[in-house]
Design a protein that fits this description.
The chain contains 13 helices and ten strands. By secondary structure, it is α/β, with parallel strands linked by helices. It has a single domain, classed as NAD(P)-binding Rossmann-like Domain (Rossmann fold, 3-Layer(aba) Sandwich). Helix 1 packs across helix 8. The protein is globular, with a radius of gyration of 20 Å. The mean pLDDT is 94. This is NAD-dependent epimerase/dehydratase family protein. It holds the Pfam family Epimerase. GO terms for molecular function: oxidoreductase activity, acting on the CH-OH group of donors, NAD or NADP as acceptor.
Length: 361
Amino acid sequence: MARLSVDLSGIDVPTDAPVLVTGATGYVAGWVVKALLDAGVTVHAAVRDPDASARVAHLVAMADAAPGELKLFAADLLTPGAYTEAMRGCRVVIHTASPFTRAVADPQRDLVDPAVLGTRSVLESASATPSVERVVLTSSIAAVYSDAIESEQAPHGVLDESLWNTTASLTYEPYLYSKTLAEREAWRIADAQDRWRLVAVNPGMVLGPALNPDPTSDSFTIMKMLGDGTMRFGGVRLPLPAVDVRDVARAHVAAAFLPDASGRYLLCGHDTDTMEMARLLRPRFGRALALPRFALPKPLVWAVGPLVTIQRRYVTRNIGHVLLVDNTRSRESLGVNYRPLWESLEDMAAQMIDRGAFKRR
């Protein structure tokens, strides 16, 4: 059962006030909602359309099986004041709502505006709601760096919470740019007042099973490409900072309720890469999945990258470089005990197989 739950050991979770979770139907948010419901908390779940039964059914089912209570609220990121009703009476707001995709037609409209304006809307509502004492922002390690080479260039060759992404833009890694701008906006608003505290959690690539039926996170796209034969002639060795979704959920709850939680927290259980992920999956899923066995040479990836929409700058600055992340703060301050990488991968792959995600190309 431990693999189906979130470890909240060492966290005193009060149940006398509701907690608002924005973007509650999302991949990470689903596990945050489950952890809170299992702890007996009343969760105010803000979603686009509470009447869309298929999209909220998993939340309702979790609430039915838990001591906590679920209340659904309609809210849109780009509508000022949309979260006011859902926030009423809450001492804690957990803001997870943000787009997570790289394939967009207009980065400003589809990524930056929803991330920045949505964050501003939620935090301005927090400032206008007397009950709010703490806001937990789901940021991303994307707000810290764009490319693995930046880890090698960082002090001591390791990424930590003191760093900010200065290389992403609307034309290069716009998703990373949107997360950076959104977190900077959050700190600007938080620093302008002194009633509520902001805590930011910055996960790496999130792995593990989803509670929602149709997750859209890019990590599922990467897993699908590893197993559906896309890389059958050779994989791309891409450095990745990986973390289990259940560990991310624990970090959110800890950031919400531990008295000393403050500032930013990088969440990375494992400095890995796509070929290492394939290797760890092979013992259990080697026959079921078309996992890559060999990494393509960097010069070849650089040459053909533009044909498969991979910028050569990205190839140059990532493949062949070492990515290291310091997770000391999350372990020591939030009590995150990171799950083994194989467990996250196996749980994720098994669920995707059950759902028919790996259709051979």
